[in-house]
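Prompt: I keep going back and forth on a fold encoding question. Comparing notes only helps if you start from a blank page. Show me how you would write down a chain together with its backbone fold. Please set it down just below, with no commentary around it:
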Amino acid sequence: MNTTQQLLIKNILQAPIQDDPNQEIVYAGTLRFTYAQFRERVARLAAALMAQGVGPGDTVAVMDYDSHRYLECYFAIPMIGAVLHTINIRLSPEQMVYTIGHAEDDVILVNSDFLPLLEQIRGRLDTVEKFILLTDGGDAPATSLPLAGEYEALLAASTPLADFPDFDENTRATTFYTTGTTGLPKGVYFSHRQLVLHTLGGLAALGSNATQGRFHREDVYMPITPMFHVHAWGIPYMATMLGVKQVYPGRYIPEVLARLISTEKVTFSHCVPTILHMLLTDPKCAQYDLSRWRVVIGGAAMPKAICAAALDRGIDAFTGYGMSETCPILSLSHLSDAELQLDRDAQIALRSRTGKSLPMVQLRLVDDEGREVPRDDRTPGALQVRAPWLTASYLKDESNSKRLWTDGWLNTGDVACRNAEGSLRITDRTKDVIKVGGEWVSSLEMEDIILQHPDVAEAAVIGRPDLRWGETPLALVVPKPGAAPQEKEIVQHVKGFVDRGVLPKEAVLLRARLVDAIARTSVGKTNKVAMREMYLKDVEE
């Protein structure tokens, strides 16, 4: 008799239903469900999708804000053997047409806000057979799309699926697309086994620290990373396995987020630096108590200035690192109790690092010859990784898949240093590192220092072509409201850090330029490709 239990997403639901079925899941501060009701709704959604003809191997896509519905889709769709495609709602129409067709979506669950977008491209969606409407209530809007029904009505009319099937744990569970800054979006996909292992590894890491940054059963969780982006970093699965109270905010409006954190007593979240910056600087958020809040910052480097501002509000902010292809979490910048006794600046430096790897994650830094570099926190190397939850390849994309892996190691595309304790410090993307006279200068470190200037709100540093040096750094600086720093002030500010040995001497070649905004990708990352196109056209060689 085979007694081996497959690692399937359905098993994540077992503990919370058994241990605390009355725990809450909250949407937008108004709708509330118990875990027992959530489990029944998942079973109803599964039955409703099967009644619409969805079967194993079919792809069901979702276009929604962060909601209880999305969480139900995280479970119901893969638990019947289908594939969940989380559509990036910020894609351009052309990119959306491509990703829907490439993923071969059969059914799309769509929030009423995005009906006009789908109506615009409907004639080019060759694989899609049915649309299901998602709405927060009220009359369904008029639409030319052939709707198979409204989500709540379909659930109400369905008999909950009694049992979810067993199948091979290597069955594909999810697909989404990483857009990057060049070329067509690339499809990333994960199996049930990979998602369950990532959930276990993440919980082991987040729950292992003595005090700082812990995620445990008494927490209240709210994601502020879009649920279409790498499964909201996989943390909704972790939260559900723990059985904690979960809060889903809907659309991201700074004051609404701050109010939910305060009123629902949210203690654990994750977001990109721009979201944290908005919460810290929006005057409407100042009235809310955020002092119980722990937040993992990822998607981009956390500037020390933002970390300092968060600590001033009593927020436990720290860095997490990963990428779409890694499911995503690879490392966390937890502080030990001894490190929490260090002075403020030392703590900020540690919280802003990339951190130490999760259980079952192997990291290495290599030079151009493939040799590992010293762990001296100074010598940079290309970061490669191994873990049991990394995507094996890009979906139907052989050429990009070949470049993703080297000798069994996944190439992250990041450059990093590592100290003797094993803590990583990302210094740049491989494609963004600035080579001045053959020496690598970190754009991220320069950006972090520029952001410490009192008149600077945002900053990005790109390489500027130079006949003598090859490249020199160009800082694009957004001033704070009401401030008007001179470009020479920014340069002099950076020079002070060069004089103290914090930055290499090549950084004195910096030029600065004031701009109105920093270009960003659809998931809020700095878009340096776009900035090079915008600001280097008129550079004098």
Observations:
- The chain has three domains: 9-351, 359-429, 434-535.
- Residues 35-51 form the longest helix (17 residues).
